[in-house]
């Protein structure tokens, strides 16, 4: 059996560190974002996603993506190239969950982390929109250990943000003047030994 070639690594357009943990922002990787937006406008979203157990009564809209279907999509190869830049010490990352959230004005989205403090999971977050006005809000905000906003990333068409899942963060819903849904595709990766 021939081993798969390591992916070509893409460099981020911007990198920020929060308490020493990386947040990498990539623009211009996804040329056909409008096709993803069109598909999501027909997707079956259910109000099943929660930020934390204590906020379970405030569920938000999501649609799950099967990993075996995801890895066959061009967007996954782009994601894998960005995530490859986080591989160190003979360890890489394997996807274990993928889903798309949709948020609109009036939705409540809470702060959370995507993994436990002793884990080293990554989250790859795609903003899937054909256009996004800065006045619409919808940023993802990242908090430091003192619960201060250390970084805010605004939606842009086809923008990808890859970050350490231990960083506390929250998606912000769009402002009242925005009639466009805020779609974000999240792909969660766990750290594994590279064979």
Automatic annotation (TrEMBL):
Residues 94-195 form the Fe2OG dioxygenase domain. It comes from the Bacteria. The keyword Iron applies. Its cofactor is L-ascorbate. InterPro entries: Oxoglu/Fe-dep_dioxygenase_dom, Pro_4_hyd_alph, Pro_4_hyd_alph_FE2OG_OXY. Keywords: Dioxygenase, Iron, Metal-binding, Oxidoreductase, Vitamin C. Pfam families: 2OG-FeII_Oxy_3. The keyword ATP-binding does not apply. One of its GO terms (molecular function) is L-ascorbic acid binding. This is Fe2OG dioxygenase domain-containing protein. It comes from Vulcaniibacterium thermophilum.
